[in-house]
Each structure stands twice: as C-alpha cells, then as structure tokens.
Write a structure and sequence with these properties.
This protein is an alpha/beta fold. The protein has two domains: 102 residues, no CATH class; 212 residues, Divalent-metal-dependent TIM barrel enzymes (TIM Barrel, Alpha-Beta Barrel), CATH 3.20.20. The chain has twelve helices and twelve strands. The strands form three sheets. It has an eight-stranded parallel barrel with strand order 3-4-5-6-7-8-9-12, surrounded by six helices. Strand 6, helix 7 and strand 7 form a beta-alpha-beta unit. Helix 2 crosses helix 3 and helix 10 packs parallel to helix 11. It is globular and about 45 Å long.
C-alpha cells in the first residue's frame, strides 16, 4: 500500500483520502520515468478516486488520464524531484493518479504499467493527432549514426538535422549517403536547421543543401536584409522557411511576434518555428502565440524551462513552468500540420534519459486529451 510520505496528495488538507486496501490495485513500477516515481507500490482505486488532486487532473483532462510512457520510461534515470505547486497537480500526483484513471476507465480491471523494449522500428503509423519529431541539435555530441539510433530508441519519426550531423558544405555524395541512412532507419528527414542566413552565399548554400537532401523546410535565422532573397528562393525551390525565435539573447527575432512583423507581407511559405522555451523566457505566451499565428506556424520546438524569465533553464518536458497540456490542446485545436519537434538542450553528453522522459510525457498528455474527447 502506498505510504502517505510517498504521495503529495496526502500532504494537502484538501485531500483526506484514506489509504485502504482493495483487491483492485494498479502497480506503479520503480522505473525512473520521473524522479517522483517511487518504489514499486500499489495505489488503491478508493484512495485515488477520492483524491482531490486526482479530481483536479480529471477536471482538466477529462475522464481519463492515461500517459503512454510504455515505450520510453525504461530508458530514464533518477533525477532530483521537482518542486511542488500548491493547488495544482504535480508530476507525482499525475503519475500516481494516471494509473488509477486508467483503471477507472477500464471498469476497475487490473492494469500494469511496465517497461518496454526499444521499438523494433521507427516510422510506425501515427496514432496521435500531432506529428512528433526531433531537432538533432538535441544530440549534438553524437554522430549521425548515433543520432539516428537514439531517435529510433525514443520512437520518433521526423528528423530535423543540424549541421553537426549533415554539414552545410557536404558534397552531393555525402548528402545522398546521409539521406539514405535516415531513410533506411525508417525516419523522415523533413527539415534542416537552425541555419543562420547572414549573407547571400549563406542563403544560396542553404537552399542548395536542402534541395539536394529533399528537405521540405529550412528552419532558419535570416538577417532581415536577406528576407527578399529568402523569399525568392522559397518560390524557386518550393522549400518553406520557418524562422526560429531565440528569446532574450536574440536582437532580431526574440519572439514569434517579432518574426511576424517582418514576414507578414512575404510568401506564406515563410513562417514561424516557435521555440516555446525561448518564447516564455522573454515573457511572451507560447500557447497564445501558437493560436494567434496559427496560419503561419510551420514548425514548433517543444521543451520546458525552470522559470518564465531570462534566467530560466531548459529541463525535461513536464518538469518546468510551461503549460504543456494547454499547448498540445491548442495545437490540436488549430489543426497544426507541422512537426512538434523535441529540442532537448539539457544534458548534451547524456541526453537520452531526459529526452525519453520528455517524449513519454508528451505522448501521455496527448493520449489523455484524445480519450477526453
């Protein structure tokens, strides 16, 4: 039976759920899918159903909370638990109560969340309303072969390659070989970037590179003076350009709004790559901006940050202050057709555990949102 000390629900005066025994119990594994996943424990349906924090989650996400961590949580490691927030469900509450929510939906039938092996093949048919991918900058300390293997490990399909993995000055033969590696792994090379476009030769090189690789998009940071040339090449090659905002340190494109101000009169294939972390760090609202600029939103970098100010640091998705549920719900509502691309900047020497946790968290929230419809 779950002890009171291992569930924040029972630190709240609003939750007086007794921890009583029942035969209908859900086993929560000791995998380190999140730091607050405690020792193997059984949580009772009676306790969870009476838990005020569980009810808060149900109120937000509907009648089911079913995180789809099965594919990814075997890879994660122990990390420090996040701080709790009063009057809002934290990750421990979410994970504990998610299991109970799944059982409630199943009529109380026993269910076990267990570790899974590495997916046998990436590129499975999408069962989620949003396409999930990876910005390979997340794996910048690794080779292309390693990056491909790690992308498959977390069961992502869409890949945006950074120059670490496919140099901008690569020969046509090198580009063809890299593209073949990606395709043979069952992945789709949908974009390249982020690419700085400061000079005319940068623009020409980037479009030649993208065209040779069969990329449909360039994620870029162009100098304002280069925008007319960028537009010319967009029309010539039919390759979209998603301009990435970089937050407080970016004097040209700090926010999605600052991008839109400069491109609103340009070809509509020139749009935004909203970086939700940088957007929040500069004081803008990434959820509101995703809805506001939906018709020009081409790509999105998903991450989380510790604070909504310039000092905010990147961390695993779901552990920070970004409202991930509201973000995903908005993207579904606006019928976002681009890729939600994980850009995991923390732990460059060992990114896989945090990346796996982030992917599992997002898939879990999406599963809950879908089931709540």
């Amino acid at each position: 039976m779950l002890s009171r000390s291992s569930c924040n629900c029972h630190k709240s005066k609003a939750c007086s759920a007794p921890l009583i025994a029942t035969e209908r119990k859900i086993l929560v594994p000791s995998s380190t899918i999140a730091a607050e996943a405690v020792r193997p424990a059984a949580i009772t349906l009676a306790a969870a159903e009476q838990c005020s924090r569980f009810q808060a989650i149900v109120d937000v996400l509907g009648r089911t909370v079913l995180p789809d961590f099965r594919r990814t949580h075997a890879m994660t490691r122990n990390v420090s638990p996040p701080r709790t927030r009063p009057c809002a469900p934290n990750r421990r509450d979410f994970l504990c109560c998610a299991a109970a929510g799944a059982a409630v939906l199943a009529g109380g039938a026993p269910a076990v969340l267990h570790a899974a092996e590495t997916p046998p093949a990436a590129g499975r048919p999408e069962k989620y309303p949003l396409r999930l991918g990876l910005a390979s900058y997340s794996l910048r300390k690794f080779s292309l072969a390693q990056a491909i293997a790690m992308t498959r490990r977390v069961d992502l399909k869409y890949l945006c390659l950074k120059s670490f993995h496919l140099p901008l000055d690569a020969t046509p033969e090198q580009i063809a070989a890299a593209v073949r590696q990606v395709k043979d792994a069952g992945l789709e090379l949908y974009a390249g970037g982020v690419i700085s476009l400061g000079k005319p030769e940068d623009v020409q090189q980037a479009f030649s590179y993208a065209a040779a690789a069969g990329m449909k998009m360039i994620v870029a940071s162009p100098a304002v003076a280069m925008l007319p040339l960028v537009e010319e090449n967009v029309k010539k090659h039919n390759i979209a350009v998603a301009i990435h905002n970089h937050g407080p340190g970016d004097k040209v494109y700090p926010t999605p709004e600052s991008v839109m101000e400069k491109i609103k009169q340009l070809d509509r294939r020139i749009g935004l790559c909203i970086d939700v972390g940088h957007t929040l760090r500069i004081g803008a609202d990434p959820v509101a901006d995703a809805r506001r600029f939906a018709d020009r939103l081409l790509d999105l970098h998903i991450k989380d940050v510790t604070a909504a100010d310039p000092k905010g640091r990147e961390l695993e998705v779901g552990r920070g202050v970004i409202n991930i549920t509201a973000l995903l719900k908005t993207l579904i509502e606006i019928r976002f057709a681009g890729v939600v691309s994980f850009e995991y900047e923390k732990d460059p020497d060992d990114p896989l555990p945090g990346l796996a946790e982030s992917v599992g968290y997002v898939r879990g929230v999406m599963a809950a949102l879908m089931a709540a419809k």
